[in-house]
Structure formats: structure tokens, C-alpha cells
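Q: Give me a backbone?
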Amino acid sequence: MVIANTQSATECGAQLSPRGRALRPRVEQIWAELERRTVGDLSQADRARLIELLSSISRNVGDVGPDPYGP
């Protein structure tokens, strides 16, 4: 298990399990490489605009409603 449930009387959520904590450095390394390859040459302004555009697309896709062609 990578994520452990952390529910108590005062707290509800999840945290990394020991296995998840062990994997974290490798995941962060892979994520950094992915970021470098995909948006590494974009300026901060371009990155901000990309986030705006992708957020807009995500909202639009989320608002399509039921499949017009049926179930």
C-alpha cells in the first residue's frame, strides 16, 4: 500500500505509507524530468497561460453533460 488512511476523531485524510515514503524521491525525480521535457522551455508567462487554457478545456469537457449518442 502506498497511501494509508488516517481517520481519527479529530482528523480525516490520507498520508503516505512507509512504502509510499520510500517511493517519493523516485516519483519526484520522474516528475521533474517529465516537467523538463514537456514545459521546460516555456517562460513563466507561457506556463501560466497554458494552465489557464488547460483549465478552460477541463471545465468545458466536464460540462458536456450526458452522451448525446446514448448510454
